[in-house]
Design goal:
The complex is a heterodimer of chains A (290) and B (406). With 290 residues, chain A is of the alpha/beta class. Chain A is built from nine helices and 14 strands. By secondary structure, chain B is an alpha+beta fold. Helices cover 36% and strands 24% of the residues of chain B. Chain B contains 13 helices and 19 strands. In chain B, α11 packs parallel to α12. The chains are: A alpha/beta (290), B alpha+beta (406).
């Protein structure tokens, strides 16, 4: 099994006809993802990549039965795209766009929460269930179907972890890139919980970074409810206080959101914390053999 | 984006938030004129000269080589001129600037607002920022003004009040009243405080601020509430629609290398270690810095080249990293997903040749699409570049480099 996206997901691409949307939609289709169409306001009725283009998400839901959406629209319009999807009844919204104003995301998050919709991202690589569906921008060839679930705030660091797991002979159920912004739709804890409840997932890799309290919240939840081994890594052990490290959310504010503080609480909660990102795959292999 | 106190106050004033009046100037003569103007405007006979730099702790900080502080009271126009001349052009070292300090190019001459009257002036604390946990803006208030709020939080958490704002309806009047009551205001001061809080929140939202901190917020001796200081940070992602506020950027406050990197669309943060790095993706870049540390080095920078690691971006990255004299080795760590490793490798070789003689060892770790081909290109280039595919091997090479073995 997998979580969030699978073979049966009917995926639409918002920002379908733009260069990013086109490129990644093509890649997703090649992987076998069931892309049922896309949305570009004003281009409805045409065909793109042999699939229908709709003017609105509501139309895509009505005519193509879409239930998952991936968003590539520019930052100024992305929060609107998220809300449009939520309003149209899309159940899983995955927003790749980086650089959305925080004010916009405060509204969008509140809006999707009220409608009981799952939002992944923004500023994320997407969600991948190997052998089922790729709804994101990750390189598919490093993945392998298997039993490890991954939750990560970062794109390429996720690929690093996936690659190590695959080379260690460990495939993946679903990799969830939750995003590196200060406001994201699905928290580390919520993503871990999804994987913890997935019967096929046997182990979880949780990758965080400096800033915010999501990893600590997830760690406490794991201590109380966890049933599977978790390997954890926090990026930014060498990051100075008060400097933003690329991701809008990656900034040390106080004593609680440093890498050291997060690693400590994760260890206390029974997570197998690795110091080096090079040890993620091996550690998972060792932990599973116990 | 951080902005200066005087700029923050301009935003506040525009939205009707009461501030201690002041005029920003860049010469002692202009400081005297500003003081005179403030006297006409407010009747003030005492002024405060405040260094405008992007760092806190100015009042306790010192101008290098003098006994002058970053914030000083002046009781005559002669004092204004003297203090302005000492602070302007000086280097101010505060608890937040680091030992190298920051050059003061501008000062704010402000009218004194601690004048005597029917009641004692009293300082408070008020800030608005994003609460990441709830995804909402939160107003933080305290009766302990003029102090470091983190210290207050540690020793007197009961003196800090928080009010979260529901994004669907915005700040409600009852919430502003609640804060004003909790701070103990009465009468005219209470009314003024409610107005202050309400307008400040409007200013925060309208300017796409990431944080506004008023410390201290002052109740004057005649029961007015006003901002004596204003620390404002703006949301970088929203600057495209805050065209006017985007002009507040002061690049003299930024590291020149970081400015140059930004012009090349590179995300670079200068650090003080000895191993430079160039990585695609922010998370992997931070993780690469950690690998450098675990390998016995110290990261000299954070550098995310983003999705398109090509000859041009790599060359720009090389040039920026090599300007830092502390750099003894460079680690390039690219996980090729969409971008192919052989292309990146060719880019590295091209960039290397374009720069010419690079004195420090370079380690190129390429993993992902066409990783082996990438390593081959690097190894056969004849350049002083070592290649690795697995992260562990790259770490080992970093260790050799910092030990002088490469």
């Amino acid at each position: 099994m997998s979580v969030l996206v699978n073979k049966n997901s009917k995926v639409i691409v918002q920002g379908f006809t733009g260069s990013e949307g086109t490129f990644h939609a093509q890649q997703m289709i090649e992987y076998g993802t069931n892309v049922v169409g896309g949305v570009t306001p004003g281009k409805g009725g045409s065909l793109h990549l042999d699939r229908p283009v709709f003017n609105t998400v509501a139309e895509a839901v009505e005519k193509a039965g879409a239930d998952v959406s991936i968003i590539f629209v520019p930052p100024a319009f992305a929060a609107d795209a998220i809300m449009e999807s939520a309003d149209a009844g899309i159940k899983v919204i995955i927003c790749i766009t980086e650089g959305i104003p925080t004010n916009d995301m405060i509204y969008a998050k509140s809006y999707v929460k009220e409608r009981n919709v799952t939002l992944i991202g923004p500023n994320c690589p997407g969600v991948m269930s190997p052998g089922e569906a790729k709804v994101g921008i990750m390189p598919a060839f490093i993945f392998k179907k298997g039993t490890i679930g991954i939750v990560s705030k970062s794109g390429t660091l996720t690929y690093e972890a996936v690659d190590q797991l695959t080379k260690a002979g460990l495939g993946q159920t679903t990799a969830i890139g939750i995003g590196g912004d200060p406001i994201i739709g699905t928290t580390t804890k919520e993503a871990v919980e999804l994987l913890m409840n997935d019967p096929e997932t046997e182990g979880i890799v949780m990758i965080g970074e400096i800033g915010g309290g999501m990893e600590a919240e997830a760690a406490r939840w794991i201590k109380a409810h966890g049933t599977k081994p978790v390997v954890g890594f926090i990026a930014g052990q060498t990051a100075p206080k008060g400097r933003r490290m690329g991701h809008a959310g990656a900034i040390v504010g106080g004593a609680d959101d440093t890498a050291a503080a997060k690693m400590k609480i994760m260890e206390e909660c029974g997570i197998h914390v690795v110091q080096s990102p090079a040890d993620i795959g091996e550690t998972m292999l060792r932990v599973l053999k116990k | 984006m951080n902005i200066h106190e005087y700029q923050g106050k301009e935003i506040l004033k525009k939205h009707g938030v009461k501030i201690g009046e002041g005029i920003a100037v860049d010469s002692p003569e202009a400081a005297v004129e500003a003081a005179q103007k403030l006297t006409e405007l407010t009747g003030a006979k005492i002024w405060v000269v405040k260094a405008q730099i992007h760092a806190g702790g100015r009042g306790k900080g010192k101008i290098v080589g003098t006994d002058y502080r970053g914030v000083m009271v002046a009781k005559s126009l002669d004092e204004v001129k003297l203090k302005a001349s000492q602070i302007l052009g000086g280097t101010l070292v505060t608890i937040q600037t680091g030992p190298e300090g920051k050059k003061v190019n501008k000062i704010l001459v402000a009218a004194d607002v601690y004048y005597p009257g029917t009641s004692e002036p009293k300082e408070y604390y008020l800030s608005i920022l994003l609460d990441r946990g709830t995804g909402r803006n939160v107003i933080v208030a305290s009766t302990e003004g003029g102090m470091d709020i983190e210290e207050v939080a540690e020793h007197h958490p009961e003196k800090i009040f928080k009010e979260w704002v529901d994004p669907q309806v915005g700040l409600q009047p009852f919430q502003a009243r609640k804060i004003a009551f909790k701070l103990g205001f009465e009468g005219a001061a209470f009314k003024d405080a409610v107005t202050f809080i309400t307008k400040l929140y409007k200013a925060y939202v309208a300017s796409d601020a990431a944080m506004i901190e008023i410390n201290p917020m002052l109740k004057t001796s005649d029961d007015q509430i006003l901002a004596v200081d204003a620390k404002v940070a703006l949301d970088d992602n929203a600057l495209y629609r805050q065209v006017e506020l985007a002009n507040y950027r002061d690049i003299t406050e930024e590291d020149p290398l970081e400015v140059e990197a930004g012009e090349n669309h590179l995300n670079y943060v200068k650090l003080d270690g000895n191993v430079g790095c160039m990585v695609n993706g922010a998370g992997l870049a931070m993780a690469t810095m950690d690998v450098i540390k675990l390998s016995g080095g110290e990261p000299a920078n954070f550098l995310d080249v983003g999705g398109g690691a090509n000859a041009k971006t790599v060359e720009a990255g090389f040039r920026i990293i090599l300007k830092d004299p502390n750099v003894k080795a460079i680690l390039i760590n690219i996980f090729g997903g969409i971008v192919r490793c052989d292309r990146v490798a060719n880019g590295v070789v091209e960039a290397y040749k374009a720069i010419g003689d690079i004195k420090v060892p370079i380690i190129v770790r390429l993993q992902g699409t066409n990783a082996e081909e990438g390593a081959k290109i690097i190894n056969e280039s004849g350049l002083k570049v070592k290649s690795a595919v697995v992260l562990k091997d790259a770490a080992k090479l970093v260790n050799e480099a910092v030990s002088g073995l490469l």
